[in-house]
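Sequence in, structure out. Go.
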Amino acid sequence: MSRLALLLIAPLLALVLLAAGCGSDDDDSEEATTSASVTADDCTPENLETLESGKLTVATDSPAFPPYFEDDDPTNGEGFESAVAYAVAEQLGFEEADVEWIVEPFNSSYAPGPKDFDFDVNQISITPKRAEQVDFSSPYYEAEQAVVTMKDSEFAGAASLADLADANIGVQIGTTSLEAVEASIQPTEEPQVFDTSNDVVSALENGQVDAVVVDVPTAFFLTATQIPDASTVGQFPAPGGDQWGALLQKDSPLTDCVSFAIDELSSSGELAEIEDEWMAQATKAPVLE
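Output:
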């Protein structure tokens, strides 16, 4: 959000902060840095301390899956997160040719220490624990969790979270999906944890697990492309919500400007248009309660 006349809104701001202080602990999951301290003039290529002067280095994992990236090629601007990254770059004044992509594995993205990218977009959920080690921008997406099973599974017809309690469930390590399974499904068996998303898919396909839990857009990709014999049973919210933000090095000088860019894209409606184009299928799974 842009800076306004703070003297005029100070009383209102105080009331808002007081109300926020009375919220539940679940609100702590939204650890994004706001952009109130910068303006458009601050957020131009000549004023930004990027890794390489005049360039914007963006990271994501490999392989890069739809609907976030198309053809495993983040540089083509196709797919939700590729489009978001280029929209942020444009908002900051960078040309498409000034954006350089590198590979950063999901599990190492939020590790503490120096980063060799300006920001990372890789379905990375904003959590208080991660925010102790890295910065997050304002959120650009809020994801629901989805349960995927093989079509002939005894759990394929589950109509509620309770119906999945006896399922052997697989998830990727370090993801909010694991937390969502433990908190919302509360299975009788400990979830099986796998190192990569590919390992999760293989476990389902090979019968190592009865079901897997991933975010909803990923579920639609799995069932449409990777495992046609699987189906999306339904979706449910992650406890406290599951917002994704651009990830930056801790105390990065770019954080406020990346947040500013995302806030502007949200206010203009462009972010919603990008989401509608690439993530429309995400609303079609039945809700599990």
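Check: The first strand starts at residue 56 and ends at 60. The chain has two domains: 26-141+242-280, 145-236.
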